[in-house]
């Protein structure tokens, strides 16, 4: 009923708006922008709005390099002769960062990204200041993304046409509404090397024509990390729609752990460990506000940020038909269809304009990266020598390596049946850490007695293993582990070690 009412209201609104005459704005040499189709759609984009040309005077490009890692230098595409007085080095690759709605180019989380990129490589890092275009009303900000993208494209084309700079060396990193500004820049350049969309904005972009939003034609590589999408009529700031060659759905692409509805974040909150040396009081207040109102939407940003640096470890994402298949471990074994989440994707996965879906897991706090494992074992069949019986319960495990061990991990997401003779296959994750060579797995199970059999609560419960355990890592290593015994009493550890 609610869905029907929403559709009726939207249909009525669309009918009214569709009779409204399109408007147009022409902004200097950047061309004219019309509100007509495809930038108007009666259902998905029922707005009449065009860029505000006067904002061009407020746009700036701020350069950092290893020669000026803190203080920025302004690059003005309308005064390209001034480029030579900056540290812009056209022998090096370039990253362009574009923030989203209500965000600011110089907030410290963007400075953190600049610092991380410069630690990783000697490149040019440029941030777009379009702050005055990313404020209310949102409808106007949506229109102004087109102007911001055209402004960035003008700069890139000057480098290309007047200085012979190859735009394949440019990587545009963008968040939220800024993702579509990056798309508009990419469509005007032949051809940007890579656009990364961090939780692409949903409202007035989802289900629109490719010309209106990010799509695989906007760069040679378009990769997206999706953390805050919802299907209609659910509310979300990000979009579940495929918009790139590689779309990574973290924890299914919505409702991130640690971002429960109504959860109040503080400066000691779970998502972001604020850097007190760079985050002043206003920045802490703003990011805390973001965590309270847009926690899942920001998760993509921080996942990407923590992945920058060759010494860093990031989660792996696996190509899969659905999130449920991923959770079942059905997509774990295909080594040719997996990619790192974040700064270093598997670019071999990109082919033409083919769009592919990948799934990964993340924890509820920094560091978000995880390691995936698949544990396989068989239960003994009932025989004269084995009293193996059908049981129900949950399992936990601890993985021990030469350099460390995981915490005790819940490896069943729900109560499972443990049937004699059954093959059990469990897929689970742990926070990323250095384990070294895996030596052992400690397994424990907790029985769930039958509520209709009162005596079942009073007796001891056992399961019986048949043979070795097999542990597969997300990098494809298969490890056989020999259990110390076949019989496992509930709530009692069993250790299985690497066989000699």
Brief rundown of the structure:
This protein has 500 residues and is of the alpha+beta class.
- Written as H for each helix and E for each strand, in order along the chain, the element string is HEEEEEHEHEHEEEHEHEEEEEEEEEEEEE
Radius of gyration: 26 Å
How many beta-strand runs? 24
Number of domains: 2
Q: Termini, distance in Å?
A: 64 Å
Give the helix tally.
6
Q: Residue-averaged pLDDT, rounded?
A: 91
Q: Which sheet architecture does the biggest sheet show?
A: 11 strands, mixed
- Can you tell me the CATH topology of the largest domain? Rossmann fold
Descriptive overview:
The protein is 20% helix and 26% strand. It is α+β, with helices and mostly antiparallel strands and 500 residues long. The protein has two domains: 19-360, Alpha/Beta hydrolase fold, catalytic domain (Rossmann fold, 3-Layer(aba) Sandwich), CATH 3.40.50.1820; 371-498, Lipoxygenase-1 (Sandwich), CATH 2.60.60. Strands 4-3-6-5-7-8-9-10-13-11-12 form an eleven-stranded mixed sheet, with helices on both faces. Strands 14, 15, 16, 17, 18, 19, 21, 22 and 24 form a nine-stranded antiparallel sheet that branches. A two-stranded antiparallel ribbon has the order 1-2. Helix 3 (138-163) runs parallel beside helix 4 (177-187). The longest helix is centred in the middle third of the chain and has 27 residues, at 281-307. The protein is elongated and about 85 Å long. The protein starts with a helix and ends with a strand. The relative contact order is 0.08.
Main attributes of the structure:
9-stranded antiparallel sheet; 24 strands; disordered N terminus; 11-stranded mixed sheet; single chain; 2 domains; elongated; alpha+beta; Rossmann fold
């Amino acid at each position: 009923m609610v869905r029907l009412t929403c559709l009726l209201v939207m249909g009525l609104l669309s009918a009214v708006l569709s009779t409204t005459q399109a408007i147009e704005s022409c902004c200097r040499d950047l061309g004219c922008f019309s509100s007509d189709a495809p930038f108007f759609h009666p259902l998905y984009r029922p707005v009449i709005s065009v860029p505000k040309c006067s904002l061009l005077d407020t746009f700036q490009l701020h350069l950092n390099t290893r020669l000026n890692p803190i203080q920025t230098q302004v690059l003005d595409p309308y005064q390209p002769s001034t480029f030579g007085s900056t540290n812009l080095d056209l022998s090096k690759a370039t990253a362009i960062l574009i923030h989203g709605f209500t965000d600011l180019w110089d907030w410290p989380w963007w400075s953190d990204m600049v610092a991380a990129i410069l630690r990783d490589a000697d490149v040019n890092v440029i941030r777009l200041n379009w702050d005055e275009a990313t404020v209310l009303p949102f409808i106007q900000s949506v229109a102004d993304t087109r102007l911001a993208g055209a402004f960035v494209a003008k700069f890139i084309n000057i480098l290309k046409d007047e200085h012979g700079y190859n735009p394949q060396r440019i990587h545009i990193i963008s968040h939220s509404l800024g993702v579509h500004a990056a798309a508009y820049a990419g469509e005007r350049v032949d051809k940007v090397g890579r656009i990364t969309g961090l939780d692409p904005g949903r409202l007035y972009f989802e289900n629109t024509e490719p010309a209106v939003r990010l799509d695989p034609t906007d760069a040679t590589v378009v990769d997206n990390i999706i953390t805050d999408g919802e299907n209609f009529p659910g509310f979300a700031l990000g979009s579940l729609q495929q918009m790139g060659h590689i779309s990574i759905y973290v924890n299914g692409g919505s409702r991130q752990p640690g971002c429960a509805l109504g959860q109040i974040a503080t400066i000691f909150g779970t998502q972001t460990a604020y850097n007190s040396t760079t985050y002043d009081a206003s920045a802490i207040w703003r990011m805390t506000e973001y965590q309270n109102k847009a926690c899942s939407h920001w998760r993509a940003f921080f996942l990407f940020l923590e992945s920058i640096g060759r010494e860093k470890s990031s989660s792996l994402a696996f190509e899969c038909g659905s999130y449920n298949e991923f959770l079942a471990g059905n997509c774990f074994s295909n080594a040719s269809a997996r990619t790192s989440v974040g700064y270093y994707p598997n670019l071999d996965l990109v082919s033409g304009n083919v769009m592919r879906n990948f799934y990964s897991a993340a924890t509820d706090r920094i560091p978000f990266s995880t390691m995936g494992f698949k544990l396989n074992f068989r239960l003994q069949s009932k025989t004269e020598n084995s009293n193996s019986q059908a049981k129900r319960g949950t399992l936990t495990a601890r993985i021990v390596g030469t350099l460390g061990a995981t915490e005790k991990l819940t490896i069943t997401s729900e109560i499972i049946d443990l049937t004699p003779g059954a093959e059990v296959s469990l897929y689970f994750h742990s926070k990323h850490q250095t384990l070294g060579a895996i030596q052992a797995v400690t397994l424990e199970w907790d029985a769930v007695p039958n509520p209709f059999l009162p005596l079942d609560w009073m007796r001891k419960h056992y399961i019986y293993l048949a043979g070795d355990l097999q542990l597969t890592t997300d990098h494809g290593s298969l490890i056989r582990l020999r259990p110390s015994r076949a019989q496992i009493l509930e709530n009692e550890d069993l250790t299985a070690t690497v066989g000699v």
